[in-house]
Design goal:
The protein has 3 helices and 6 strands. Strand 4 and strand 5 form a beta hairpin. The longest helix has about 40 residues. The chain is elongated.
């Protein structure tokens, strides 16, 4: 009599049973490979986004630098506007119609045009309310105007691309 348990059949050995995969299931190594591929793709996408952000930031900085690159030079020219004003205030009445004075006025006009062409604008301040962000008060004077109103401009203020580069020096009503 033979005992069925005594015979060894390798097909029935649990260590020899091949792994059964579902029809759509793939071996275990490939999901790890997909994960690495996904990691590489995500890393590449992050690098691409970082590079695009760097390009935008660099373009913004260049634009900002270009916008204000000449600020120092333009600020150095501003006292010339004051000198012309002081010079014209000192012209004797007999000389006001002279041709040399007209030439100097032409030079002043050209200087103001150069400043304007470089986005430097002279502030209009007389009659406006005093604003410490735009004006420096040099005196308070008696006036029929409302208190805090600018009644006289001593030296003009200027903006470059909307940024104040020199405050206007003004006299304010008490």
């Amino acid at each position: 009599m033979t005992n069925q348990n005594d015979s060894y059949n390798p097909e029935h050995d649990p260590d020899n049973i091949p792994e059964v995969l579902e029809p759509n299931e793939e071996p275990q190594e490939e999901p790890v490979a997909l994960t690495k591929e996904q990691e590489y793709l995500l890393g590449w996408q992050r690098c691409q986004a970082d590079y695009q952000n760097l390009q935008k930031e660099t373009a913004r900085r260049i634009q900002e630098h270009t916008k204000y690159a000449t600020e120092g030079l333009l600020e150095e020219l501003l006292p010339l506007v004051d000198y012309f004003k002081f010079a014209f205030n000192g012209v004797p009445e007999a000389e006001k119609s002279s041709s040399w004075l007209k030439g100097v006025e032409h030079i002043q006009t050209n200087l103001l045009n150069i400043l304007r062409n470089n986005n430097v604008e002279m502030m209009e301040v007389v009659g406006k309310a005093f604003d410490a962000n735009l004006h420096d008060a040099v005196a308070e004077v008696e006036s029929s105007k409302e208190s805090g109103t600018i009644v006289e401009e001593v030296t003009p203020g200027f903006t470059l691309n909307g940024k104040v580069i020199r405050h206007a020096k003004v006299k304010v009503a008490k």
